[in-house]
Amino acid sequence: MDKRYLCLDTGGTSVKYGVCDENGQMLSSGKEPVGKTLEEFLDQVQGLYEKYSPVDGIACSFPGEVHSEEGVIRGISAVEHLHNCPLQQMISQRCGSKKVSMVNDANAAALGEAWQGVGKEYENIAFVIVGSGVGGAVIEKGELYPGTTMNKAEIGNFPMGGMKDGALLCWSNFTLEKEARKYSENHPKEVDGKELMELAEKGDEDAAACVKEFLHYMAIGCVNVQFAYDPEIIAIGGGISANPKILEAINRSYQDLVRGQQMEYLMPKIVACQRGNDANLLGALSYFLKYASFQE
User: Fold this and answer.
1) Nearest to 11 by CA among 287, 239, 192
2) Cα–Cα distances in Å, from 217 out to 108, 134, 146, 210?
3) What SS3 state is found at 19?
4) Rounded mean pLDDT of 171-186?
């Protein structure tokens, strides 16, 4: 029988899961709310393992500073109840001692797109993954290298100038979702990023100002990415990648920003990722198959 793998993509609100073969063919998939405590999460993973067994391994994507060889998450993320514990070992113990791999979620998205998506034809790719914050990953000469502290391409921490309430403002402060929250603070109806774009298109001046700020900082971030990593393409992932108008607007904003400036000579190719919600699952599997080392 062909090998099958349980792939998990854990975020702040949900766990996306899929069963894949070793060629990346998705055999089944779904999502459910993420367990709110470590014990709830382990119960959840065990339940999925038992539901989809037999599988030949478990490939996991997590936010935060994922130390893949140690099997531990450190740093800051939306799932801090999973940090600073031997998570890889604990999952394996709950799931029949199966081999378990762990990789950062932005790195997983990059690996998935490099394997089965927008990056198939390139060797040097910078990924900008935009959700409630900004994540990043870089593929160089076809390989992923996360850095000495697992923080390479943590581009959401790029300083964007200025301070607020004693904190340094960074790229992750200016996502479309954060702009939607700013808008909602001053208006009776709470909106998300998609609704903010729709309001801007209908002529709402406050919404248009928020969208303009988002695009401005996307352009600044992409300038930094281009000069930091000099990739063949900058691939934009996350929910905004499904909207061609946003990608067109990011490209226009970049061109407007650098026009007449010293850096105008270097115009990047900014494109949308292709695999959507499957990218992290495929990337987790790619990491399992290509990079993970296991003790027999």
Assistant:
1) 239
2) 24, 11, 24, 11
3) strand
4) 96
